[in-house]
Structure formats: structure tokens, C-alpha cells
Amino acid sequence: MRRRVAIWSTLVTLALGAGAVAVASAGPAAALEPDLDNPQVVATGLTVPWGLGFLPDGSALTAERNSARVLQLRPGSAPATVATISGVAPAGEGGLLGLAVSPTYAQDGFVYVYFTSASDNRIVRFRLDAPQNQQVILSGLAKANIHNGGRIAFGPDGMLYAGVGDAGVTANAQNQQSLSGKILRMRPDGGVPASGNPFPGSLVYSLGHRNVQGLAWDAQGRLYASEFGQNTWDEVNQIVAGGNYGWPTVEGRGNDTRFRNPIVVWTTAEASPSGATIDGDTLYVAALRGQRLWAVPLDGAGGAGTPVALLQGQYGRLRTVERAPDGSLWVATSNRDGRGSPAATDDRVIRFPAVGGPTSPPVSTPPTSEPPTSTPPTSEPPTSTPPPAGACSVRWQVNQWSTGFTADVGVTNLGPARTGWTLSFTFGGNQRVSNAWNATVTQSGAEVTARNVSWNGALATGATATFGLQGTYSGSNAAPSGFRLDGAPCTIVSG
């Protein structure tokens, strides 16, 4: 562990102690601390990257505010344009803003974006294999040169949340009938959820906001939001359904019992907080005017200790921070937004690996769209002593770090040709699957089931289907056993 990270860990511990906050466990947070001395520049030469989300293969998508482009980012590769959003009208703080990947992307392939058009702010969704087909799921949100909000994120409940600014009309933040100055909660198709929203028939989840640009959930499902103040106090709030956060009556903390107080406040010079993400017991907030990354220790009960400033002045204005599936922390700068002093390589997206994790993400990344039908499946020779007809062989290759791992799996069909397949196996330790690609993976206890996706269901005799998964473990990461293809036993071959 590098010295700076060790010092930062100590500061966070002291910050919690100073606030007389008890923390039950810091296990996940300590395991996934970002190695701030080992930055990896993923992309340069961008213009105001705003939204950032991850695909199941570990690559990222980012939305450029002014160009209306959605770019795919992979470490070591040049950014690739995968979509251009029609109807974007960038002006002031508006343009192509938030981006979110569907939590059921493996099934529906949807990517969501929030943007400013000529008449309003709106949310659309599209698929990377048909980016020209953009479906509007919510429109009519007030637009302005300032305070467009724009952050969207899926919660652990599968609902889509959106931070909507007051668009410069402060009174609308207290008007329950207006969607301005609110956090909205909606179904993935834009409709009002059947339950969970505080006001019947309304998308409004919380009100009294000036300009929310960060949304993040902790392990208990609590929502936190970062919010721009006006002249005095920026905020982090713990969001509850129906909560009123006071704007424009209160900025920062107040003594009015009608409103909920923030759990953290900063001066506007220290923060101007935009994107936010949670890793373990730490909320990270990207600061624009403050030109730093804030690490906010969470107390496990909806409150916070004293924030610690990281990366201060090193990269300029920071717009977005997101935790990647491999535990690394990705940060996007915003130095070309008209308010910064851009370096020659700005704007940038920078990856900080997790301490104890891989320095770079897995190199065997799967495709983001269906591979060409002309690509033949990879074949492997059978073992010297072939298993019985109808069985299979399995190759299990693992890359692991302190509490996490990725596995590349190859399943070779040694029986009759199949039009679909299901591979089952049993973990040998305390492993939990958190992500998968090229297969739909479910887990019940130690039992895991992987089913083909649309493009790799056909499996000829002697052909191999490959997929990958990511997971966590405690204790030993013992290899799985009991592999079965459609119920028939398989043998394990060396990688």
C-alpha cells in the first residue's frame, strides 16, 4: 500500500472519530481504497465529459456535453464514438449531461441519457446496436442556461432517478406540482412507479433542491445527493421519500423543522459538487470550483464524518466520479466548460485502481454488441480421454486480488449440437457473483447457473462458448466444482 493512501485512510478514520461516529466495519471500504499514486489516463482531448457509466464488459461510456457524442472508453485504446444524440442544444450549463446503463443491459441493451434540447430537458434511451432509434421517456423538464440538473442513475430498486435543477426559477423547488428543483423517481420506461413514490401519480421523490448533480446509494440502499448552493453553502443530503431540503428558503443548515438538514456542507469555493459515487463506507464527490475529490466517511446510519480533500489542484475541475465494476475509481475533468484553465490534454478521464486490485482491468473484454454471425465459434480439442457423449469440458481461468476476482470460462460441447445451453456449478468458498458478460448468471447460495445469451446459444459438437464473470470472496477463493452442461457432468481442463 502506498504511503499517500495509508495517510488518507488514517485521515478518514480520524475524521469519523472527531465526529464521535461509531463505525461497525470498514472492511469493504478499506479493501477498495483508490491508489491515488497510480493514475491511469484512459482518455484525453475530450470536451466536457459529463455522464459516465459502465457496460457489463468493464468498458465505460461517457457523454460529451457540447458535442452530443457518446464515447466508449477502454484503457489503452482511443475513445470510440458509439452514438450521437439527436436534438441536443448545448448552451450555458446545458447540453448532453447524465448517462446511465440499464441494470438489465444484458437483456434489454438500453443506455439512458439526459440532455437539453431547444425547448426542454429530457431523458431518452437507445441501444448501441441501433443508436439512431432514440426513445423519449420523459420530456418537458424546464431548461435554462443554468441549473439544468442532469444526473441520472439507477437505484438498487431498479428505478431510474434524476436530479432536476430549478432552472433559475427558485420558487419551483417548493412547488410540488413542478418537476423543477426535485429528485425524480421513475420506471425505466419513464412512468410513475406503482409504489415507493411519496406523492400519488407524481414522479417527485424529494423537493426543495437547487441543482442536484450527484446521486449515489450505500450498501443499505440509502440515497445520497450532492447539491450546488448559491453563495454560501454547498451540500450533501441523505435523501428520503417526500423529504423537503429547503431551497430557496434555506441554504445549507437551518433551524426550520419543515426542512431536512444536509449531512455535509462546504463553502462554494471548496466544492461546487457535481458527480458522486459510494465505495464501501466512503462517499466520493467530484468538485468543480474546489478542484478536488472529496472523500466523505459515512457512518452507516445516514450521517457522515468530516470530509477529506483528495487530488487537490492536481487535475483542475472535476465533474464526475464513478466506481467501476473492478473496484477502480474513474474521474472525469471539466476544464473545457468555459470556467476552467484547460491543460493541453484536457479534458481527461482518469482511472485510479483499487489498492490490492489489478493495476489495469481484465484484457479479455467481451463485445458490447452482438458479434458478426460469420465469426465461427472457437474450438478446442477434446481431452485425451473424452468424457461420455452428452458431456462437456470446462476451462476456468481466474484473476484475483484481495477480495475480488474475475473468471474467464470456456465450455466445450462434446455431445450433440445445441441451440441453447445452461452451465451449472458449485462454488467451493464464500464467493458471490456481482457481474457477468456473454451469459446470464444467477446464484443461489453456492449454486451458480449460467445461461447463454442471444448470440451464443448455438453450440456445435466440439465448439466452445466463452463468458466471463466478476465476483467477491472472503477467505479462500477455491475453484468451483460440479460443472454440468444441461445436467450432464463436465470435466475441467487446464487453462
Helix and strand arrangement:
Elements: H1 3-18, H2 27-31, E1 40-43, E2 49-54, E3 60-64, E4 69-73, E5 80-84, E6 96-101, H3 105-108, E7 110-116, E8 121-127, E9 130-141, E10 152-154, E11 160-164, E12 182-186, E13 204-207, E14 212-217, E15 223-227, E16 233-239, E17 264-267, E18 273-279, E19 282-287, E20 292-297, E21 308-310, E22 318-323, E23 329-333, E24 349-352, E25 378-379, E26 392-400, E27 404-413, E28 422-426, E29 430-437, E30 440-444, E31 447-451, E32 463-474, E33 481-485, E34 488-493
Parallel strand pairs: 26-34
Antiparallel strand pairs: 1-24, 2-3, 3-4, 4-5, 6-7, 7-8, 8-9, 10-11, 11-12, 12-13, 14-15, 15-16, 16-17, 18-19, 19-20, 20-21, 22-23, 23-24, 25-32, 26-27, 27-32, 28-31, 28-33, 29-32, 30-31, 33-34
Judging by the overall fold, what is the CATH architecture of the largest domain?
Answer: 6 Propeller
CATH homologous superfamily assignment of the largest domain: TolB, C-terminal domain
Structural class: mainly beta
Using only CA atoms, what is the Rg?
23 Å
CATH class of the largest domain: Mainly Beta
Which runs of at least 5 residues are low in confidence (pLDDT < 50)?
A: 1-7, 12-31, 363-390
Query: Could you name the CATH topology of the largest domain?
Result: Neuraminidase
How would a crystallographer describe the biggest sheet?
10 strands, mixed
Question: What is the 3D shape?
Answer: globular
Strand content: 35-45%
Q: Give the domain tally.
A: 2
Percent of residues in helices: under 10%
- Termini separation comes to 31 Å
Mean pLDDT: 87
**Structure summary, number of beta strands:** 34
Number of helices: 3
